[in-house]
Structures are given as structure tokens and as C-alpha cells.
Amino acid sequence: MAFKVYIPASDMAFVEALKTNGLGVPKAFHWIVARLAIARSLQLPQFPAEDLAKPTVQESGREIHMEQLTGENSPVLDDYTDQFRLMLSMYHGEDLFKDRDRFAALLQKHLQRGIGEIRTSWHAGNDFHDWLYHEMFPERAAPAEAGGPIDKEGSNRVRRALAEAGVSAAVESAREGPRLTLYDLRLSSADDLIRLRRDLEKVQFELGLGKALMLTNPMGERRIGLHVPRPDATWWTPPASKIPEWVREDRFRDMAVPLCAGVDVGGDEVVFDLRDAVHLFVAGTTGSGKSVCLHSLLLSMLAGGRDVQLCLIDPKEVEFAAYKACQSLWRPVATEIAQAAEMLGDLIGEMDARQKILSELGAQNIDEANAKGAGLPRIVLVVDELADLLMQRPDSEDSIVRLAQKARATGIHLVLATQRPGSDIFSGQLRSNIPSRIALSVRTAQESRIILDETGAERLLGKGDMLVRLAAQDAKRVHGLRVEAGDLRSWM
Ligand SMILES: Nc1ncnc2c1ncn2[C@@H]1O[C@H](COP(=O)(O)OP(=O)(O)OP(=O)(O)O)[C@@H](O)[C@H]1O
Ligand SMILES: [Mg+2]
How far apart (Å, rounded) are the C-alpha atoms in residues 129 and 392? Predict the structure, then answer.
């Protein structure tokens, strides 16, 4: 006699939806769904209820022959009947090789329970294959690179706080960075992402944090990172002495001017090429760490072993005092506004002269010209407090805009810092020609938008916590290095 199992009629609508919206194959065989359901049921530790009644003939929506379900004696399918029997025998502690009826009855129970499990935990609209992978292989689903063992207590707190805010999510891994704990969350649905973004303040309140939580960009199917700041006393900030080590690493050898901004949220060094960044705008509220950030960029230029000449404008007269004796100055540090204006004029003259050299050599840019023997160093103009310069010499904006528009090919780069990231200082002309931005902490989301074209910097922790958005890339969170006055003196 041929054995069969049944998908109950009451489950058929769901099974059809699963085939269409989940598997994406409306014509998929029912036995495939039945196998998945049995596998899901076998993951649960407790036995399916004994009184889970087999559907009556009227209720049986779809019959599935053993030939299909286990491949028993099938001319086309592989025969897994023994494996099925073995799995169920072990699960139930019974010898199901001897009792075919009992074997079929248990398969029926697992099939019904499994469909019920899938129905309650998978939501149409979520990727079924991704859901399945996570359900079947929870230990493999947390990616290895996401890091270390889950800190149970912290994860539980996060999970509770999310639940209080109405967000359904699993904490897949947690990792301690220099200033934050990074939680990888897997959200149950797209609606949970909307709730999480909308109610981040609530989650923060539930966690008892005085400081802002931040989310990363989604990292693939329903996964997102949550940055939970730790108390300042537990932070570790790498010192400036790391810069020469990092910028000279072999993997950065092809960079024209490697710059070290700091470390990422996981503690790895963040080094980028000024050639790719082209020009940088650095902004943040007073005390957020702009000057310290400029120092780490300047020390990178000095330590990188490249031919770089510096033009420094320092209307406050304090920040760049340490560089007065630096060997790599293109002009003396400008502290007077008149000196600064003169320096800008000289730079425009240099840019024009370089353009001539480039066209004589038939070169598109400084690298091609140098390959033909031009021997031109890159020149970097760094202004600490652009607002002071622009307010005292409004005409200098034209010079800066000209340089921003045209200097790139000639190897002249701009790094402009200000604590006033208003649209009066960072005007449309400058914005469109300065592709890379560093935002340190700011007061409002609006200020963050002016600097980065996106919000987020209003949630930063201060003291060199920053969002770095290089030309055409996504913003990345970086913690700046600690550069102190003593470091500067010892380097010049
Ligand atoms: N990466 C860092 N690590 C640790 N502390 C930092 C870091 N960056 C800045 N700080 C702390 O913040 C203080 C202020 O930094 P900084 O002088 O760079 O601010 P600023 O943004 O230039 O302020 P202002 O607009 O007033 O010039 C530093 O003296 C230091 O104590
Ligand atoms: Mg400063």
C-alpha cells in the first residue's frame, strides 16, 4: 500500500503564498514545501503534540506520496527514505525502521507543525531564502568577520530596549570598539527598520544613555549595526606616534599622499589618499576636535615620505605656531589676513604656471607631468578657521573657489576647517567643488546636512568622533587620533 502525507486544506492558501512570494516559484512541488516544513519542525526540541490530528479526507488539501516526499522507490528522485527514518528515529527515540505506519504518522505531525512554524515566523515581504538560512543555520548566519562572542548582558539590554520601543530584532554579534560597542542586529521586517529609525531616541532612553546611539547603513538582508557608546573612561585612543607606522605600510604605497584620519569603529586604522579626496572641508562645533584632526592630517603628510609642501593659514595665530620651523612649508605660516590673501594669490599664480607646464608636456595631471620629469611637489593649503578669513577678507572666497575648481589637476589641494558650517561660510560654489567632507560633532541635524549632505553628525560623541565622507563614497565613522602639543614639537 502506498503511504501518503497531507498538507491540510486550511494551510493550502499559505503554502501557495509561500511558493509564490517566498520560494519565488509558484509551480514549485508541494513535496519541497513539505520537506522544508519537516526540517523546520525537527529543529524544535519538543515533540510535536501527539493529538495533532491527521487531517480527515475532507480536510486534506493536498496529498503527497512517499515517493515524492522521501524519494522512496522513485525512478527520478534520490531516495532519502533511510535518512528520514534515521532522523526521526533518533529524534523520537523509537525504531521507525520497523514501524512504517508510525513513521508516516510522525512525518505527518512534523509536516503540520513545520508549516505552522514557518507561517508564524516568516513574514511575506521578507526574503524567504535569507530567513531560511538564518533559521536553519543560526550559528553560521552570524558572519565571522562581525567579530567576537556575544556579550550576553549587553545584548540582552539592547534586545529589551528594542522590544520596549516595539522593534523586533535579534542581536547576532557584539564587538567592542575603541569607544563603542557594536551590535549587529537582524530585524524581523522592513517595518522594524522604520520603527528603529523613528524611535531611536526611545531605544536610547531605554538603555539609559545620555549619549546618542547611531545606526550604520543597512548591511544586507535585514541587518543593521547599532553603535552604543561606552563611558569615556573606557575609551582607548591611539596616539599620534602611530601615524608614521600606518602611513608607511606597504599596502598604501601607491597612494600619492596617504592621510591617517584615525581609527574606525572597530579600531582599525583609516588611511585615505588626498589625491582621491581632492579637497576636504572639516567642520564641527567648537571643541569637537577639528584642529586635532588637522594635525593628524598634517603629520601624515610629513610622515608619509612623499614630496608635499604646506601652505598654512591660521588667523587665530595659535594652532599652527608649532609648524613655523617645519621644513616642508611652501610659504611661511600666514597668521595675518593680508599674508593669507597674498598666499592665496601666489597659489593661483602657481596653479596657472603649473597648467602651462602640463600643457607643454602634454600631461593631463601632475602625476603624468612628474612621470615626464616635471618634479612638481603636491601643495596642500590648510586653513584653520575659514570663517575668520572669509569675514575679514570676503574677496578671498573667489580665490578659494578658483582653486577648488581648477587646482586639482595641478596637484594643489585644499583642506578648509570651520566651526561655523552655515551656508554663508560653506557656500554653494564651495560645496560643489569640495567633494570630501569631515564632520565632527555639531549641534543640529541641519548643520550635519550642510557639511555632509546627510544627518548624523549631531549624534557624534565629540573629542574627535567624526563622520568622514570622501568623494562619492558613503560616510564612515572614524575616531580621531590623539595629537598633543608635545607631539607637534617633537616632529618639527
Ligand atoms: N581625537 C581625540 N582624542 C581625544 N581627545 C580629543 C581628540 N580630538 C580632540 N580632543 C579633545 O578636544 C579638545 C578640543 O579639540 P580641538 O582644539 O581640536 O577642537 P576644535 O574643534 O578645533 O575647537 P575650536 O573650534 O574651538 O578651535 C582637545 O584639546 C582634546 O582635549
Ligand atoms: Mg580649533
Answer: 62
